[in-house]
Amino acid sequence: MARNTRRLVASLLMAATAAAGVSACSPIVTQYGTSPSDGVQVEVGTQIRGENLLILTRAEGAEGVLIGAVVNRWGSPTTVNLTVGESAEAASVDVDGNSTVLLNPDAELVTIAAVEAAPGATIDVTVSSPEQGSVTVAVPVLDGTLAPYDEFLPPAPVEE
Fold first, then answer.
1. C-alpha to C-alpha distance for 89 and 132, rounded to whole angstroms
2. pTM, to two decimals
């Protein structure tokens, strides 16, 4: 009986040691950025990161807004340009060093006169900085069906 107990204890110790060794060698998940929402992430070099980028509009061709966040990981301030689609002018967002600018109606508002894609599709957004160049990413287009997106939609056009 004592022999079986010793084998059991030895097996448990070996399993615990193996588990500790495996967990010590694996990366910590919280070290990696994720998009906890419906938006996407984009990295522009080592300096700029776009987080949770998505476009809200009522319909294709209607006014829209780009929401999310722009992070400057360098110590010096920069200007980040955001170009939505092919025909839009770039919106410029000034970001201080080591800081984040939220893109929403309560902070920095990036409006789009006419969104070139319908809700449910994606549209290319180019994120660029003078120091790191540019990256283009497919950003989802959503409508205000789901909360809290409904509160960020541009107002509906008034019919006369």
1. 20
2. 0.76
